[in-house]
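does this look right to u?? magnesium ion version
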Amino acid sequence: MSLIQAHGLTFAYPSVRVLKDVAITVEANESHVVIGPNGAGKTTLFKVLSGEIFPQAGSIRYDGEDVTRLDAWQRVHRGIGRTFQVARLFGEQTVLNNVVLALECRERINGSSAGRWWRLTPARALQEEAMERLASYGLDRRAGDAAATLSHGDKKRLELLLTLALHPKLIMLDEPTAGMAPEDRRAVVALINRLREEEGLTLLLTEHDMEVVFGLATRLTVLNYGEIIASGDPEEVRRDARVQEIYFGKGGGHA
Ligand SMILES: Nc1ncnc2c1ncn2[C@@H]1O[C@H](COP(=O)(O)OP(=O)(O)OP(=O)(O)O)[C@@H](O)[C@H]1O
Ligand SMILES: [Mg+2]
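got this back:
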C-alpha cells in the first residue's frame, strides 16, 4: 500500500490557479523528487500535503487514512514531517534549545499517544540527546549560539535535524540544498540516501539542482503550471519528450 495517495488536488489563490487536478502517490521507502520551474506549484503541493492549507477539491490518504481535512499538527502526530523552503527555526533561541524543544515535542506526541504524558523524559537526558544529535551533524560547536547566527547551510541542516527529532515516517523537504555550496550539497545527498537506506525513511522532496536530483531520486515527478506532466523512473522521465522540451530544453533547463 502506498504511504500517500492523493487524487484530484486543486488549489487556487484568488488570482491564480496553482494546482490543477494533481494526483501523486508516494511509496514507502522511496525518495520521490518533484521538480518543475519556478512557480509550478511545488511548495503549494507540499503545503496541501502537510495540512498547512486545504485543497478546494481532491483527497489525500496517508497510511490508509483519509487526512484531507486534518490539521498540520495532526499530520505531524501521524508521522509526517516537513522542512521549509526558508528554514523555520526559533532564531533567538540557542541551537541546543531548538533541538531540546523538538525533543520535548516528540515526548509529548509519544507520551500522549501512549497515555503516559506524566512520564516525560527528564530535561537532562533530553539535553544529552540533543547534544549527541548536534554532534552527528557537526553542529555541536554551535550549540550555545543563537540559531539566527548560523550560516544558511547550517540553518537548513538544523531544520532537518529538528524534523528528524520528531521521528517521522515521511519527511517532505522543500529544496533542502537551496543556496548551498557544492560540497554541502553532496553531504545532504549522502545524508538523505542514508536516511532512506539505513533508517527506512520515506522522502518527498523538491529540488532544482539536477546533480542532487539524480543523486538521490528513486522516483521523479514533473510539475508544470500546476499539472503533473510525467512521473516514474528518473531516467525514463529525463528522456520523456515533453519533459525534455519544457525542462531540459534549449536554454539549459533549470540546474
Ligand atoms: N500566498 C500566495 N498568494 C497568492 N499567490 C501565491 C501565494 N503563494 C504562492 N502563490 C503563487 O502560486 C504559484 C505557485 O507557487 P509555489 O510557491 O507553489 O511554486 P514553486 O513551484 O514552489 O516555485 P519555486 O520553485 O520558485 O519555489 C505561483 O504563481 C505563486 O506566485
Ligand atoms: Mg517552492
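The longest strand covers residues 16-26. idk if thats expected tbh
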